[in-house]
Amino acid sequence: MNAQDRTPSASSPVSPMLAKAVDSVPDPDSVPGGLAYEPKWDGFRAVVYCDGDRVEIGSRGAKMLTR
Q1: 54 in helix, strand or coil?
Q2: Relative to the CA of 14, which of 7, 8, 29, 49 has its CA 20 to 30 Å away?
Q3: Through-space distance between the first and last CA atoms of the chain, rounded to whole angstroms
């Protein structure tokens, strides 16, 4: 959200997680804090911005999808 007007924005400082293809699945304990996995389903990957009663949905490419 913009600091001045608190309006949800796809340019807010939140980076969506991106799927990454790998040759094999790393051991869950191979990094500090561990790892978690989920399947990549077809569909949208989006970030939801919420400020009180106002909610906006943005794509990882900063396109607003709320409509």
Answers
A1: strand
A2: 29
A3: 18
Residue 47, both tokens: 């970030």
Q: Please name the residue ranges forming H helices in 1-67.
A: none
CA distance 29 to 1: 34
Per-domain residue ranges of the chain: 1-7+44-67
At 49-62, the pLDDT tens digits run 888 888 888 887 77
Would residue 29 be called left, alpha or beta, if left means φ above 0 and alpha means ψ between -120 and 50 degrees? alpha
**Which residues are identified as catalytic?**
40
pTM higher than 0.70 for the full model? Answer: no
Which residue type, as a one-letter code, is found at position 61? Answer: G
- Which amino acid is present at 57? I
Q: How many helices (H) and strands (E) does the chain have?
A: 0, 2
